[in-house]
Amino acid sequence: MLRHIGPFKSGIPHDALAIVGTASPFRLIETPMLRMTRQADYGIVLLRFLAQHHDEDASWNAKDLAGEVHLPLPMVSKILKLLARANLLTSTRGVKGGYRLVRSPEAITVTEVVEALEGPIAITDCTSAEDINCDIAAMCAVRSNWTTINRVVRAALDEISLSQMAAPMRRALATATPRTQE
Hints:
mainly alpha, Arc Repressor Mutant, subunit A, two-stranded antiparallel ribbon, about 10% strand
């Protein structure tokens, strides 16, 4: 789900800035650090569509789904297979076969979708349940803070169901402005 950049070989600490050589000596380009992958984003798009059509008792094949949500068929096929493997979708073969949600949209969380497509949610390597790939993890002064932040992000995604993603965005959320630092 989230991509990690750095450390750079130049010794620059973990940062969201990459230095790219251009005609002028150097240009700083900001790259997003906390970002949903395209695969996870497209997975949500596909499941949103299936959630909107959940009550129709119909199965959707990969080609029809790709057409309905305007996504490339190879990516849609890959995502559908991963979601079926994670038991979020059921797959039926045959002429009338296709994909359907295994559970109601209310019972599927964004966390489940992201983890099915990308693996465990981890803001940094040291917040992952997997092997820690950090040389300073044992003596890191901010590791517990990252763990707390990771728990909060995960809890927020756990609170959002597929049915909420399928509903039109509430005006309050659509017009919300980010908090500014004081």
